[in-house]
Design a protein that fits this description.
With about 120 residues, the chain is mainly beta. The chain has no helices and 11 strands.
């Protein structure tokens, strides 16, 4: 069982930056693939980025490439999302997720953290 708790959301002006954190419980965090998703008002949840268990592989949605960076610290059981050059359309609830098989099946989800970008 893995429990995920996101933090770091808030209100920021367009062009600004935020760093989200996702703290995980459980001794097997280092073996899970981790990802970030987001859901804007009235829209479906969408993929943002993911990182493999050993940080060797990352993947980004086209809409965030070059602006967002995912990283992880397995010693701290934490995954991060650095968001730069934020746009109004990045406004959403951001969720982290864990994948046992490091694939596109996500087994555990956090409760989400709100990011609001004012234009």
């Amino acid at each position: 069982q893995v429990q995920l708790v996101e933090s770091g959301g808030g209100l920021v002006q367009a062009g600004g930056s935020l760093r989200l954190s996702c703290a995980a419980s459980g001794r097997t965090f280092s073996t899970y693939g981790m990802g970030w998703f987001r859901q804007a008002p009235g829209k479906e949840r969408e993929f943002v980025t993911r990182i493999s268990w050993n940080s060797r592989n990352t993947d980004y949605a086209e809409s965030v490439k070059g602006r967002f960076t995912i990283s992880r610290d397995n010693a701290k059981n934490t995954v991060y999302l650095q968001m730069n050059s934020l746009k109004h359309e990045d406004t959403a609830i951001y969720y982290c997720a864990a994948s046992f098989y490091n694939d596109n099946n996500w087994d555990y989800w956090g409760q989400g953290t709100q990011v609001t970008v004012s234009s």
